[in-house]
Amino acid sequence: MALLRRRRAIHGWLLLTPALVMLTTFAFYPSVATIWTSLWSRGTRRNPSEFVGTGNYQRIFDDPTFWTVAWNNILYAAVTIPVSIGLALVMALWANARIPARSFVRTAYFTPTMLPMIAAANLWLFFFTPGFGVLDQIGALFGAPSVNWLGQPETALWAVCIVTIWKEAGFFMIFYLAALQTIPPDLEEAADIEGASRWTYTRRVVLPLLMPTTLFILVNAMINSVKLIDHLFILTKGGPNDASKLMLYYIWENAFAFFDAPAAAAMTVLVLAVLGALAAFQFFVIDRRTHYR
Amino acid sequence: MSLLRHIEPLLALVLAVIWISPLVFAFWAAFHTSTDAVNFNLLAPWTLENFRTAWEGAPWLRYFLNSFLLVSSVLIGQFILCTLAGFAFAQVEFRGKDIVFVLVLLQLFILPEVLIVENYRIAVQLGLIDSILGIGAPYMASAFGIFLMRQAFKSVPRELDEMARVEGCSLLGVLWRVYVPAARPTYLAYALVSVSTHWNNFLWPLVVTNSDTTRPLTVGLSIFAAPENGVDISVISAATVMVIAPLLILFLIFQRQFVQAFLRAGIK
Amino acid sequence: MLRYASALTMLAASTVAVNPAAAEDVELTMYYPIAVGGPLTQVVDGIVAEFEAANPGISVEAIYAGNYDDTRIKALSALNSGDPAQLAVMFSIDAYDLIEQDLIVPFEEVIEGEEEQAWLDGFYPALMANGQIEGQTWGVPFQRSTIVAYYNKDMFRDAGLDPETAPQTWDDLVEMGRALTTDDRWGIMIPSTGYPYWMFQALAIQNGVELMADDGLSTNFTDPAVVEALEFWVALGQEHGVMPEGTIEWGTLRQAFLEGQTAMMWHSTGNLTAVKNNAEFDFGVAMLPENERRGSPTGGGNFYIFKDATEEERQAALELIKFMTSPEQAAKWSIETGYMGVSPAAYETEALQAYTEAFPPALVARDQLEVAVAEFSTFETARVREGLNNAIQAALTGTQSPEEALAEAQAAAERLLDAYR
């Protein structure tokens, strides 16, 4: 018996080895190495690299751009997460209802999900361009003045958010749609018989049943608010005056445009800490709740 | 109340039209001269000139090939790694399994995108810079895939497993003969999600590729259409349409399967 | 050293002087950027193909890597990872950082003999300025530009202005801009994304000041004349109403000009051929106006040779660079793009003579060279530049006053440059 158990254990570990090697190489080791890198100064011809402890952290905390970028990212999350989840819910309710042209509506909502972010940014660039962009041309029909969407600090981040929402809402809709289809139809019939309005039915019956889905989407949306930055490369490059710069873009810029890997590593550590907190939230709060479902 | 019932479908339709409009505009602009496009000359003649200009402007064929090789190699890697690991987590009992599983799940949050600085360094050390394998490697052991395969394998009836063992199948034999066929729908779902993710991925490929011989479509498109180039709306629209066409056409044909795939992949 | 030099002579003799075809095959990888419109990758591929035909012993892989920043990132990434890269066209202003990172060799170490010295001395001095540091030449000019003013002559006529006279002074600029601005179009657009510091440097020079010191160790952003220059730029939009407020996109500006959104634009001369091929109206090109003096920074890309290249590769790289900067090729490049011919000899060639005779605007950038100044460049240049860019954008978008914004940029530059003093 003990022999069998040992053999099973060996099999188990053998099966896991390839995946664990890859995960260690590209996830666990680099996470730890990032912390290590963040403790050393950047080496140049005149100043070789040396151990500086929290010096790099001090440096980024003293960097006003870092705070602008952090704030931008919080705003980006605070706007894109609720709006795209809200829209996704509405879309799902509509796409699930008996309406004309339903399959067109569904396809239209979902299609942006299939596009690369870079392509999406290209499409939207022409909407935002002042003067001859689509938005301005439409505005001009109503006598609105030309708006420099990407060129003003007040609007640049919003323009970036709009593209993200456009890309995300349809994706999240799918999950709601799936959840809606698991709701037994007799619930709606029962509500009808009791004379409850559709709004009451949606609010009292549907939304609570969608709660686990919402939490799942929420976590995904939070991760995306860190990850989805590709469109910055096309739309604004973080400008004007850093008004639309997001954290991951700034990390990229530090590491690959300014050749300041230690600063980039220090910021990466901070981002990892945030993601870690998110993971804890997922494991300890959400998973526990869904168990009682 | 009945008013709302009539307005709602209309609103749904309006939103759908808004949602699809950037794509429609780009499609329309791609077939018109840039002057006609920016002036909304709806009656202007159609032209293929933009596609010719775009096509000649970059080695697109190479980019398509690179993207194709990329998604294939990632997919193969993911299938092998995730099948083995998922099977271990689902059907093999051994000590320490739960802890390792939690560790693996952590990777759902440690995104490869966030680790570009160190992953770049590792790719340099392993000689993976500017190679297709280098773009794909960090994604091959996907925690998500492992999780998915574990769920799929768990639902395979125990009897099938035991029957195969009685017939003298080895552990890997059982995996191959019983579990893999039983999980076919999950594989299909995961493949679709994986392909569309990596076809569209950008940041890491940007960092790790240096030349035309490895650049996938997204990176190729981004440097072709960089605003510094002095954007010509129509030509860029043509390039964009070209890049998104294959996946989009596939999506429109296999819409139902695609949506089902995303559902299966997303919901436990 | 002697041995080194004689080895070098022998190598040079074997690869270059005697017969390149007889030498062993050398493979070169060259990264290069493009920052203006048009199908320029094909032009570069064409030149490279010609070079390979003339030098059977050398094969060249030319890799287009995006804009100037992308190209630096990609070339250095290749070097980092041990992928081959022997030469690159990169920003003329990257020189300080490339030296600091110990990545490039001065051309004095690569050239041999009087003939090659003469070649090195044959470029326009103004174009050499950014590449000459610590007494040596680190970069050789290739796709070089100055900023020129493009204007729509039809609109000038329409506004009752003389279509042959572009604004000569800042006051002219404002006045004529006012006459040209209507409900449908702006008087002028000066781009403020992509390379805002470059446009700003032009204004500062015209106002009689330089933005940086020659040694790359200090900047001058808080000088009253510098602040005044930024105030002038801001006022074009906010006070005089001849330019849109907010930032103006570098990339879409050419199209805006071609679509008649603006009567004038300031842009790189590298756009000239693209404008010429696409303008459906009569347009003119002029030097930038003056305030205290005339002037524009030079801009664009230089050739660099990487230190990691072997002697043999360096010599082959030098051959390629000599070929691409030769008068005939420079003339061809200039005609295809609008970039300057990099040496006086280029303008002596029949091809460019004939071209400029038929199309005089092609000479404006060169004529402006006489008043041109080296482009803004310091140690830690990408970051110092980023700070300045942000200051300019903050002022243009009204987030900060020009004075505040520049003071912040100056403080940031001080912090960054301190380590190098």
TrEMBL record, chain A:
The keyword Transmembrane helix applies. It is a multi-pass membrane protein. The keyword Cell membrane applies. InterPro entries: ABC_transporter_permease, MetI-like, MetI-like_sf. Residues 70-280 form the ABC transmembrane type-1 domain. Keywords: Cell membrane, Membrane, Transmembrane, Transmembrane helix, Transport. GO terms for cellular component: plasma membrane. It is found in: Cell membrane. Pfam families: BPD_transp_1. It comes from the Bacteria. SUPFAM superfamilies: MetI-like. GO terms for biological process: transmembrane transport. The chain crosses the membrane at residues 12-36, 74-95, 156-178, 205-223, 263-286. Its main location: membrane. Belongs to the binding-protein-dependent transport system permease family. This is Sugar ABC transporter permease. It comes from Rhodosalinus halophilus.
UniProtKB/TrEMBL annotation, chain B:
Its main location: membrane. Belongs to the binding-protein-dependent transport system permease family. Keywords: Cell membrane, Membrane, Transmembrane, Transmembrane helix, Transport. One of its GO terms (cellular component) is plasma membrane. GO terms for biological process: transmembrane transport. It comes from the Bacteria. It is found in: Cell membrane. Residues 64-254 form the ABC transmembrane type-1 domain. This is Carbohydrate ABC transporter permease. The chain crosses the membrane at residues 12-31, 63-87, 99-117, 123-148, 187-207, 233-254. The keyword Membrane applies. It is a multi-pass membrane protein. The keyword Ligase does not apply. InterPro entries: MetI-like (IPR000515), MetI-like_sf (IPR035906).
From TrEMBL, chain C:
Residues 1-23 form the signal peptide. One of its GO terms (cellular component) is periplasmic space. It is found in: Periplasm. Keywords: Signal. The keyword Signal applies. It comes from the Bacteria. InterPro entries: Bact_solute-bd_prot1, SBP. This is ABC transporter substrate-binding protein. It comes from Rhodosalinus halophilus. The lineage of its organism: Bacteria, Pseudomonadati, Pseudomonadota, Alphaproteobacteria, Rhodobacterales.
